[in-house]
Amino acid sequence: MARRNKIVIISTGGTIAMQDSGEGAVPALSGEELAARLPQWGEGVEIEVETFSNIPSGHLTLEQLWQLQKVVAERLERLYVRGVVVTHGTDTMEETAYLLDLTVPSNKAVVLTGAMLHASEPGYDGVRNLTDAVRVALDPQSDNRGAMVVMNGEIHAARYVTKMKSHGVDAFASPGRGPMGRVIEGHVHWYWSLEREALPVRRLVPNVHLIKATLGMPDTLLRALIAQNVAGIVIEGFGGGRVPPWWMDAIREARQKGILVAIAGRVPVAHSMDGYGYPGAYRDLEEAGVLFAEGLNGPKARLKLMAILGGLVG
Ligand SMILES: NC(=O)C[C@H](N)C(=O)O
């Protein structure tokens, strides 16, 4: 039986690939240039590098995201590949990580990493993070953990990780959970594992929108989306997912028109279920026929809804 010893690094851009142009940091380094900064690996380890794109992560389109999903899934099917590392901007890293977590069929490691400081800054964290990410992908215990984000020596599960800070190398955290493991002095330590939810998805339906409930907010945005006949609406509700009572009519109307409505929580550690009997709380929403995102934040819930709408294979 052939040993799986190859890691495929797929670079997409982000600050990890940026340098100062004199007028601000911009994408500069290709996947090959990033990989050239990595240390030598032990015997038998092979690194293959692909440049998928070189853009800030907020510039990625859903088409590119789905294309990346296909590339990652295809590379993991190859016998000799032990895992894939995706370098990515940090702004939307949790979304790409979660989409790959949800839809890539393979149980092999999928690791995302990036940098908070660009390559012209002292303290550039890209080399450390990419080195750690490759170490995690090579680790014999990295299978069956879904997609992971490796930043600042921490290994985060895609489902729970979120960017908490706009600045600082410690920008990522998994609120309510903590990291799934750490890379300490080159050694990978695992704290817990999880059973990931994987859906065999055909495609993403893009026409899904996210709105956030705020105190006293009218139902204007909901009504506008219903008038547009969108495919789905995700609401980040109060607490684990409650809405103002005057939104309920619009939510019921959306459901009657066949628009899927999903409820996510506005707080970082959210459970949808509550014991309240008042309008706009869990029971009322359940009766209205909404879906509950069960702990996912709004952006991740939106991806899941797009995947569900895209239809399952088989
Ligand atoms: N730190 C980062 O990578 C932020 C960056 N501008 C991005 O592409 O998301």
How is this fold's topology laid out?
Elements: E1 6-11, E2 18-20, E3 25-27, H1 31-35, E4 46-51, H2 62-77, E5 81-87, H3 93-103, E6 109-113, H4 126-138, E7 147-151, E8 154-157, E9 162-163, E10 172-173, E11 181-184, E12 187-190, E13 208-212, H5 220-227, E14 232-237, H6 248-256, E15 260-265, H7 282-287, E16 291-292, H8 298-310
Parallel strand pairs: 1-4, 1-5, 5-6, 6-7, 13-14, 14-15, 15-16
Antiparallel strand pairs: 2-3, 7-8, 8-11, 9-10, 11-12
Helix pairs in contact: 3-8
This protein binds asparagine.
Verbal overview:
The protein has an eight-stranded mixed β-sheet with strand order 4-1-5-6-7-8-11-12, with helices on both faces. A four-stranded parallel β-sheet has the order 13-14-15-16, sandwiched between helices. A two-stranded antiparallel ribbon has the order 2-3. The chain has eight helices and 16 strands. With 314 residues, it is of the alpha/beta class. Strand 13 (208-212), helix 5 (220-227) and strand 14 form a beta-alpha-beta unit. The mean pLDDT is 96. It is elongated, with a radius of gyration of 20 Å. It has two domains: 6-190, L-asparaginase, N-terminal domain (Rossmann fold, 3-Layer(aba) Sandwich); 208-310, Rossmann fold (3-Layer(aba) Sandwich). Helix 3 runs parallel beside helix 8 (298-310). The site of asparagine has 10 residues, from loops. This is asparaginase. Its EC number is 3.5.1.1. It is an enzyme of class 3 (hydrolase). Substrate binds at residues 57, 90-91. GO terms for molecular function: asparaginase activity.
